[in-house]
Write a structure and sequence with these properties.
Layout (H helix, E strand, L loop, with lengths): L1 H4 L10 E5 L5 H9 L5 E6 L2 H8 L15 E5 L2 H6 L5 E6 L14 H4 L1 H10 E11 L4 H9 L3 E8 L8 E8 L14
Parallel strand pairs: 1-2, 1-4, 2-3, 4-5
Antiparallel strand pairs: 5-7, 6-7
C-alpha cells in the first residue's frame, strides 16, 4: 500500500504522509523505507495498547518504526487528524478495518462514507493520494470515491505478492491524474 500511495511523495524533499492505524507497524515501516530523510510521517492510532505493544514486543518485527525521527505519533482517532489537516498530506494510508463493509468498530464507517471521503480529499495536497486497504473489492466504495472528486485506481494483489496467497484490494483516490509507476505492481 505504501509503495502505491507514495509514488509522488517519495520524490519530494519534505513530504507529509498520514498512516491511519498503527497495527503491527508494517505499513509504517514500509512508508518510512520509501520516504526521504526530510519526510514527516504522522501516525494516528486510537488504542494506547497498540502503541505500547509497538514500543515493546512488536517493535522488533517491523524494525522499531516508532523510533524513527520522522515519525510524529498521535494517540488520536484518525478522523480527528484528517479533519484538522487542510491540504497538509501528500498521501493518506488507511488500514483501519478489513474494508468498507467489515467494520470492527461502528465509528470506522465514517472513513468510508461521503463525509470521510470529503475530509480526506480536503486533507490532501492538490496532487495527493488516499490509499485504503481492503480484504476485498467494493464497487460502491469505488463509486463513492469518484463521487467525492477522486480519480480512482483499484489495485488487486496477493498478500506478500506470492502466488496462491490471500487477495487484497487497495483503493487509490488521486486528487490529480494517476502517476506513472516506476515499478510494476503485481495485479490479479
Amino acid at each position: 500500500m505504501a509503495e502505491l500511495a507514495c509514488v509522488r511523495a517519495r520524490t519530494r524533499e519534505q513530504p507529509a504522509v498520514l498512516v491511519g492505524g498503527l497495527g503491527m507497524g508494517f505499513a509504517l515501516r514500509a512508508t518510512l523505507d520509501l520516504l526521504p530523510p526530510g519526510a514527516i510521517v504522522v501516525v494516528a492510532e486510537v488504542s494506547p495498547a497498540v502503541l505500547e505493544w509497538n514500543r515493546g514486543p512488536l517493535g522488533p518485527l517491523a524494525a522499531h518504526p516508532l523510533k524513527d525521527r520522522r515519525v510524529q505519533m498521535e494517540l488520536a482517532d484518525g478522523k480527528d487528524v484528517i479533519r484538522a489537516a487542510s491540504g497538509r498530506f501528500d498521501a493518506i494510508l488507511l488500514d483501519v478495518d478489513n474494508g468498507p463493509n467489515a467494520l470492527s468498530t461502528l465509528g470506522n464507517s465514517w472513513f468510508y462514507a461521503d463525509a470521510g471521503i470529503a475530509a480526506a480529499r480536503d486533507a490532501l495536497t492538490s496532487d495527493g493520494v488516499l490509499a485504503v486497504w481492503s480484504a476485498w473489492e467494493d464497487r460502491k466504495f469505488e463509486q463513492r470515491l469518484r463521487y467525492g472528486g477522486f480519480t480512482v485506481e483499484v489495485v488487486r494483489l496477493r498478500a506478500r505478492l506470492k502466488k496462491g496467497g490471500p487477495r487484497h484490494t487497495i483503493f487509490l483516490g488521486h486528487r490529480g491524474k494517476v502517476p506513472a509507476r516506476g515499478r510494476r505492481t503485481q495485479r490479479i
